[in-house]
Amino acid sequence: MSSRSELRPGSLAPAAKLSAGKTSVLIGRGLLAGVPLPERGALLYDAGLPDSWSAALPALEQRLAVPAGEQAKTLAVYEQVLRRLADWALPRGAELLAVGGGCTTDLAGFVAATYLRGVALRLIPTTLLAMVDAAVGGKTALNLPEGKNLVGAFWPPEAVYIDPLLLSTLPEAAFKDGQVEMFKHGLLDGAAWPGRFFSPEDVASEQLERAITASVTFKAGVVARDPQERSGLRAQLNLGHTLGHALEAWSGHRLSHGQAVALGLHFMALLSEALGGSGVASETAALLRWLRPPLLCPPELAPLLPWMARDKKADLQGLRFTLLRAPGQPYLERVPQGLLASTYAAFLRSSAQLGLV
Ligand SMILES: NC(=O)c1ccc[n+]([C@@H]2O[C@H](COP(=O)([O-])OP(=O)(O)OC[C@H]3O[C@@H](n4cnc5c(N)ncnc54)[C@H](O)[C@@H]3O)[C@@H](O)[C@H]2O)c1
Fold it and tell me: Which residues are catalytic?
């Protein structure tokens, strides 16, 4: 990490502190060095973090690297971690501290939810997506060969420490992907979008810290009102994901999650406008112009429909979409297939006009 010298050892002076349900979220540049160590606990950290990180990780004796990326979210790795905790005889009152991307925080959350029927958890997310999304909200997950995130529990962490300086080593593609989720939060919030995109040179900037804070504040607000996804409120967080997930899967993951969601957000904007909503298509077009995802999309909607039918908002009557009446005004709507097909054609035309290939 290039900005290590800016860390303030031993101090914990967040620029912002907020609550997401029972979780305290602390945000501030340089926060990592001040994270308090548990009296008794273990550290799980992302093996994909660059070597330059090792000295900065919380100094817990009992520590275990977990595989980078989705490899962490397997039953096999889950078992290995549980057995290591048992081997250390980590007691019920102990705490797990996890440092890493969304895959590490998803795994650590499920381990914390289930080891000895539940131990306390604190998270230090290290990707932008984990900071503004995965680490905030109490959802934990493992994958099965049959599908992603099929195993999990709600297990909110006691605290999440968000230190934007940790993004200094993040590859640019991952930094961009995280900004797509921030953009989505901005559309849903209507006020939080800072109106700009950030480059890796901005990681130490106050503007990025403020934008992350706005994004986390929005997500925390939704989580506080619907902590266990019972009221349907959290479905709004799926904005752009119905088509996005389908494109991600159809492309065999050649489109990253962020790229696919960005395309899905533009489709959502056009669909919202077709149903009389006041436009956000110029904003989603700006997102695509900045991100420039490859237009890895089938020429017709039909091949995407089986993937879309797996969307968690679908019910026995069919597909439902989160749409926008205006920025900050989401609603859930069933859309006739004819309109979906014509909007998909308009989406392909619009994306081509934006220069995507
Ligand atoms: N629980 C939730 O509510 C929730 C919400 C959104 C996403 N998710 C999950 O999050 C996962 C995706 O998370 P992600 O996008 O953070 O990806 P990730 O965890 O796979 O991390 C991406 C890569 O970056 C590396 N990395 C992490 N931090 C780094 C840093 N600071 N510098 C350099 N490299 C770093 C990782 O080792 C990994 O190789 C998915 O599995 C998704 O299902 C969960």
Answer: 117, 139, 181, 219, 229, 234, 238, 241, 245, 257
